[in-house]
Amino acid sequence: MNITVRQLELFISLMRNPHIGKVAEEHYLTQSAVSMSIKALEDAVGEQLFDRISNRLVPNESGRLLLNRVRPALEQLQEVETIFRQDRMAGVLTVAASSTIADYIMPQVLFDFRTRYPEVQVEMLSRNSEEVIAGIESGSVALGFIEGDYECRVADFRELCTEELVVVSSDKHFASEREYTIEELLGLKWVLREPGSGTRQTMWEHLGPAKKRLNVFLELEHIESIKMVLKNPDTVSCMSPFCFQRELANGELFPVQVQGVRFTRRFYAVTHRQKYKSALLLAFGNHVRQHLETTWPWILRNTH
């Protein structure tokens, strides 16, 4: 068997993005060179790794099995290049984060990390928390960031910090008039994230039996869509303070004080227990934590 590192690199790229043309551009090769390399790999392992359907490559069961076996080994091999040069960092890291983290925290993190380590490529996926956990379980995601507590037997959870969700309204008079009981708010038009999101789960955990009487008027997948709908009368939502800082400063959204209910939740970094923890993965995880601690201390209660 004669398998090369280049063949494995191209194979992993195709499993991630099964388009020969795009993979060829990524690796500065011709399409025929990529095709020949994958065919040689299939000949070497004695199995077809992709199904050819309507001129498309579709990863099959053998391909997924090989991916789970070779990706950790290739990551370790790539790290050899930097083991004696600790001031350098290189490689590709697939990261998935739940929507609040992906949209409001990660952009600056990615910019700062790429500025510091220009040879690093971070592939950023925005998912809800359940989908992030699914990616960790399947091995398609190297490092995940989620909001709220989830159970997963194959995952390690590293607590990053704690935040408190806020009920918000575009009605300044209503929001500032007084403190409300949750019972007084149940009948308003609630505009919420979809089931499976960390924000929705946190609300449900803290509302208890009252959630059955909550008037869920709309369910939307994106916080920006929710904020647009909140311009309508009698609408409220519950979201992370990360999400409405601009609107708060501009006088467009206002926090509603709620008696006796605190929608607290934890942020976690998540990895598969069997995954090799490369220097790149550890460095990125630490960078995210440092960013939270130094940039948002007035929002977060950090845990150590």
Explained architecture:
The protein is α/β, with parallel strands linked by helices. Among the domains are: 1-80, Arc Repressor Mutant, subunit A, CATH 1.10.10; 163-264, D-Maltodextrin-Binding Protein, domain 2, CATH 3.40.190. The protein is built from 13 helices and twelve strands. The strands form two sheets. Strands 3, 4, 5, 6, 7, 8, 9, 10, 11 and 12 form a ten-stranded mixed beta sheet that branches. A two-stranded antiparallel sheet has the order 1-2. Helix 10 (198-207) links the parallel strand 7 (189-193) and strand 8. Helix 1 (5-16) packs across helix 4 (61-80). The longest helix is centred in the first third of the chain and has 20 residues, at 61-80. The radius of gyration is 23 Å and the shape is elongated. The termini are far apart. The relative contact order is 0.15. The model has no long low-confidence stretch (mean pLDDT 89).
Determine the oligomeric state from the structure: single chain
Shape: elongated
Number of helices: 13
CATH class of the domain at 163-264: Alpha Beta
Helix content: 40-55%
CATH topology of the domain at 163-264: D-Maltodextrin-Binding Protein, domain 2
Distance between the first and last residues' Cα: 49 Å
Which sequence of SSEs, written as H and E, runs from N to C? HHHEEHEHHEHEEHHEHEHEHEEHE
Which structural class do you get from the secondary structure elements? alpha/beta
Instruction: Give Rg in angstroms.
Output: 23 Å
CATH architecture descriptor name of the domain at 163-264: 3-Layer(aba) Sandwich
Mean pLDDT: 89
> What proportion of the residues form beta strands (DSSP E)?
15-25%
Q: Supply the CATH superfamily name of the domain at 163-264.
A: Periplasmic binding protein-like II
Low-confidence stretches: none
| Major sheet description | 10 strands, mixed
Number of strands: 12
